[in-house]
Write a structure and sequence with these properties.
The protein is of the alpha/beta class and about 475 residues long. Helix content is about 45%, strand content about 20%. The chain has 3 domains: about 250 residues, LarA, N-terminal domain (Rossmann fold); about 160 residues, 2-enoyl-CoA Hydratase, Chain A, domain 1 (Alpha-Beta Complex); about 40 residues. It contains 20 helices and 18 strands. Helix 14 packs antiparallel against helix 16. The two termini are about 30 Å apart. The mean pLDDT is about 95.
Amino acid sequence: MWFYKESVQITEQMQKEMMEQLVNEAGRRFNRSIKKVLLLPPDITRYHSGTGKITNMLYHILGTGCHIDIIPTLGQHVPHTREENRWMFGDIPENCFHVHDWKSSCTRIGEISDEFVKYVTNGRADWPIPVDVNRLVTEGNYDLIVNIGQVVPHEVLGFANHNKNYFIGLGGKATICASHMMAAAYGIEDNLGQLVTPLRGCYIMAERDYLKHVPDVYVLVVRTSDNDGELQTTGLYIGEDNGTYMAAARYAREHTIKVFEKPLKKVVCMMDANEFKSTWVANKAIYRTRKVIADDGELLIIAPGVERFGEQKEVDRLIRKYGYKGTPSTLTAYNNDPELKELGHAAAHLIHGSSEGRFTITYAPGKLTREEVEGVGFNYAGLTETIKMYKPETLKEGINTLNGEEFYFIPSPSMGLWTAKEKFLGSLNTNLEFAKRMKEREPGESTWDHLIQSDSQDIKKYKA
């Protein structure tokens, strides 16, 4: 790690000073003039990460004498409009932005073998993962590539960001599909909130083997809520190695995961209309709360911006066809429908978005009908009536009571993870066994020593 800061509030001025230090440090470390730069921020579904402002800072710090390209790391999400770029990134000229196309803008740089996948998942998955990334990363001849993003609990990788930017955010179709299906086969609840998951282990290997020549640095943000419920940047980490990620993820696990002694009977989530326009992204409300909801409990998702299911038409159609009906149903469809098998990320999404019949999921969407919502396996609630009843703008995160009914309100579920202690301890123990297997296979990689130490400490902490 080059340098970092942890504080109650890292102000915008502090962030700007750290970005100035980054540019100076990069020139020294890579021994070159920084004249051509690629910035890789997250897309608009991470608007509240504050990384749009950091991207804007870097653009102005680098100045007009530097050629700057920017690729929002969309993965397979819908590209930004001009207005969305302006909303997230401020006054950066539109001609700086490039659209990542997961089907046509990538090149293959390697493969993660089926043997390695089988080993890291302990036999739960056994297929290779092709490594396809946006060709500008390997062919753009940049003096510096800056990966910018928020480290927050994530359903596929345990925590978002770091090399996720390359292999999902700028990944190709084959990489994204094989990766997501691997994570689903391993189990979403064993991934959530883990510092290094089996898929992250695959990406660590891929970055080491195929991108070691790239002059890059990571800017990793951790945001937490203050006493008034307002999001603040409280961790900011700059560096080029796995240690940078581990420090950020360790801090994020301590500050963005809420562990409850007992499961919650009812949870109500509010999804920002500007960020969440499909269940593909709004289902983060399901992912981040599923480990805290009691058996036979209820999740209510208020999503005024949701107007579709998938981010692409073909995925939207498959979601409508098969619905969020649980793992057995989805695997049957996956094994029998060549189109779904070709779009493995869609099958993984259907698995992740199901409660497996353990609790009910009710959507109050802005632009989907009752028939559409119930057709995919969710319960439906009218948006106008639901907002009138719950008045989410008056609620703060935590326990609320309405007409004698108690519920837990979460205004921005994408910013953290809520889990019952028993479930979190179970996944910690599973991940510790994974770390020990990796230590046996790669004894010289310090990441596994750090992971074993962190998981062991947290198991003792939560047992106590």
